[in-house]
Amino acid sequence: SSPAAAFVSSSPADTVIKATSNPIFTHKYTADPAALVHKGKVYVYAGFDEAPTRREGYVMNDWLVFSSPDLVTWTEHPVPLRAKDFAWAKGEAWASHVIERDGKFYWFSTVEHATIPGKAIGVAVSDSPIGPFKDARGSALITNDMTTDIKIGWDDIDPAVFIDDDGQAYIFWGNTTLHYAKLKKNMTELDGPINTIKLPNFTEAPWVHKRNGWYYLSYAYQFPEKTAYAMSKNIEGPWEYKGILNELAGNSNTNHQAIIDFKGKSYFIYHNGGMQPDGGSFRRSVCIDYLDYNKDGSLKRVVMTSE
Ligand code: FUB
């Protein structure tokens, strides 16, 4: 696989990258993309896979942010958030999601909790989509002891936040069991009970989006992971399982997607393990492909490309 993105120039603050094919970034391994469209630009927030070649296991300390006006020219901004920026966290910058509300940007992040065993979800805030972000609470929003399925230490991971047209915000998260709860307007507190959604072979990585009156809930399916999805007319369900959306992502045993509309087209942003010479489950690379809808609102299977 030949490098797709050419390293063009750098300054102490920003690095400019031209990406004419997948993977979009080749100077670093990047994983778990979340994407935000804001004022004519796409922001991609990704975990930084730093595992040395042949190491089996995640080495993830920082998150990265990239912005682009056209999905070809990307700017990598200075590191906007590190797992250790949450003083209560031990580390491990796993999957995250950034969303804007009333001019502030909220970064929901998975980290390892320092004192409550297992993963936890924190929230950081900034006035800018590129940060810097600061812990918004001083404590975790969700910890492993708040849900009953405490068989594994990584069941409270992978936040996906969605704000409905009526202004109500929801957070979805989980591994093996998919949870969701309402968020207060301040975006830093849960509002009401933690609920559970049952979907076939749910593993992790939920992402919720809405289009033409349909809610879509895509997620990592089985292990190694494909991406599957469900649809509903109501954000609180019931969700109807609709099938596989994306196949195994190269030699990565995880699959993690973000879905956006940008300048009239829909995009599926994900990571793939097989796109760089030493790539794999712990050295993943963010890719972008088109997402197409059928007339009835269902989704066409993603065609992963290297172009
Ligand atoms: O990158 C670490 C974990 O792997 C993420 O939190 C999951 O979604 C999976 O991609």
UniProtKB/TrEMBL annotation:
Upper classification of the organism: Bacteria, Pseudomonadati, Bacteroidota, Cytophagia, Cytophagales
Protein name as it appears in the record: Family 43 glycosylhydrolase
Family the entry assigns: Belongs to the glycosyl hydrolase 43 family.
Cell membrane is among the record's keywords: no
Keyword terms: Carbohydrate metabolism, Glycosidase, Hydrolase, Polysaccharide degradation, Signal, Xylan degradation
UniProt KW S-adenosyl-L-methionine keyword: no
